[in-house]
Structure to design on (487 residues):
């Protein structure tokens, strides 16, 4: 941190710039972890909604209805306090008093759930977009369901899902900011705290906005590249 | 679990007070934000780079950064600058206005909503079939008359499903307003009850149920509006064929 706390960086952020960098790191890792789990939940949710089992259908439907209908902030607080009380009573039963729930973990759980809810719809649409005959052909060739899913469905799902996945990623990235409400030291918290410590609120908060915009721009580029890669052989550009 | 909380008059008084603030915030933001989105979307589609570029930058900024960051930027950022300006701070008429978090919330939400709705409207304007524009021009309409009479009315109808979605997202986002001091919309008002009674889980469960019900109601209402405004999209109701009177032997 020695090198960057000099020059214009030092002048602009009055020695609190390292907070922004640490916050950025927390934001990015939180978003990435939640996204990876969210994609898994999305595939699972899509499978539940499309499966022949009535119970799975209802579970999938309930999941997306809850995510769509309850504000992120309410879900965050509900799970934060709920898990804290649940885990604390569990650990005190086990004889470990003063158990503190890790905020990063809570944030990642909530954000994965939200992200997975939105991705369920994306994945469902993508699975439906792959012609049914292809799966039937794969099964007719003697592939089992897992192999057919992995070799036939999965490579094609990306092509249809990537635009929606890109959107959800950007929504998730912005949603990480609300985790500052439970006191996680991510970018939003860092810029607000750094700003009020130096009485330079505007500078710090604007810097945070610029950082979000840069991540957005990089993500857009990455998703465009991924989309081109997933559609190779289909769309010529 | 403190179940008596659900029957307490104070809880439902807080729900009523909070809901009133939420509804006020949501309706002002939607009306002003949507109105501001029209010129913004038109500017974004302008032929002239000097008009198009600022609209693009505005929309990129407000769609690319979190609403919370914008809220903080407006309240702590701009508010901090105002508080440090003696001309405002010492002005007895201006300061009560500049000190009130409510105005900052309104401004931040309107700026944000305008950007999102403008993007939806831009897509809808581009989706208006080209033949309709050509027909309007062939009838001798000027560009502005064509926009006003043909393109915008059609675009408004085309954007309705996406707009419904945006209304729900904005409604859910109003909860973020309570992260500023002195804003007690539904989440903020019930949050006070939670702090006072320590019945955090009960209060947040109630909140989740209330929001779930409210989003369902709003979605249903907007779908009805959609059906009214786009009657040609209604699923065709196949009328049972009129039973042919049996021709009995005469």
């Amino acid at each position: 941190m020695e090198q960057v706390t000099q020059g214009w960086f030092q002048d602009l952020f009055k020695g609190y710039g390292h907070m922004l960098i640490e916050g950025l790191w927390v934001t990015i890792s939180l978003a990435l972890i939640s996204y990876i789990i969210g994609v898994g939940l999305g595939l699972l949710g899509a499978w539940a909604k499309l499966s022949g089992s009535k119970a799975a259908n209802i579970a999938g439907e309930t999941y997306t209805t809850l995510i769509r209908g309850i504000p992120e902030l309410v879900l965050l607080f509900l799970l934060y306090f709920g898990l804290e009380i649940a885990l604390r009573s569990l650990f005190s039963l086990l004889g470990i008093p003063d158990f503190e729930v890790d905020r990063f973990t809570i944030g990642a759980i909530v954000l994965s759930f939200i992200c997975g809810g939105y991705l369920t719809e994306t994945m469902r649409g993508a699975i439906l977009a792959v012609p049914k005959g292809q799966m039937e052909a794969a099964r007719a060739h003697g592939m089992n369901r897992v192999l057919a899913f992995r070799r036939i469905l999965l490579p094609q799902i990306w092509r249809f899902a990537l635009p929606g996945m890109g959107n959800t990623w950007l929504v998730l990235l912005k949603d990480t900011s609300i985790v500052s409400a439970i006191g996680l030291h991510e970018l939003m918290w860092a810029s607000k705290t750094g700003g009020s410590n130096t009485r330079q609120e505007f500078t710090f908060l604007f810097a945070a906005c610029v950082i979000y915009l840069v991540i957005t721009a990089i993500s857009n580029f990455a998703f465009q590249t991924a989309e081109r890669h997933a559609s190779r052989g289909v769309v010529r550009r | 679990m403190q179940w008596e909380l659900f029957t307490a008059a104070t809880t439902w008084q807080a729900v009523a007070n909070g809901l009133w603030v939420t509804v006020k915030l949501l309706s002002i933001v939607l009306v002003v934000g949507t109105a501001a989105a029209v010129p913004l979307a038109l500017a974004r589609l302008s032929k002239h780079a000097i008009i198009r570029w600022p609209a693009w930058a505005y929309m990129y900024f407000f769609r690319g950064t979190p609403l919370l960051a914008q809220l903080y930027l407006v309240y702590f950022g701009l508010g901090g600058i105002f508080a440090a300006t003696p001309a405002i701070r010492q002005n007895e008429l201006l300061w009560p206005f500049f000190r009130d978090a409510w105005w900052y919330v309104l401004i931040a939400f309107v700026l944000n909503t305008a950007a999102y709705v403008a993007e939806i409207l831009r897509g809808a304007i581009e989706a208006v079939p080209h033949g309709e524009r050509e027909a309007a021009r062939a009838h001798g309409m000027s560009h502005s008359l064509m926009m006003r009479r043909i393109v915008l009315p059609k675009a408004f109808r085309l954007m309705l499903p996406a707009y419904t979605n945006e209304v729900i997202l904005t409604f859910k986002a109003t909860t973020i307003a309570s992260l500023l001091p002195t804003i007690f919309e539904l989440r903020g008002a019930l949050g006070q009850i939670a702090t006072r009674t320590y019945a955090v889980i009960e209060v947040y469960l109630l909140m989740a149920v209330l929001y779930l019900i409210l989003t369902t109601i709003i979605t249903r209402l907007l779908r009805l509006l959609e059906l009214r405004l786009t009657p040609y999209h209604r699923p065709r109701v196949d009328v049972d064929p009129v039973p042919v009177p049996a021709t009995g032997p005469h």
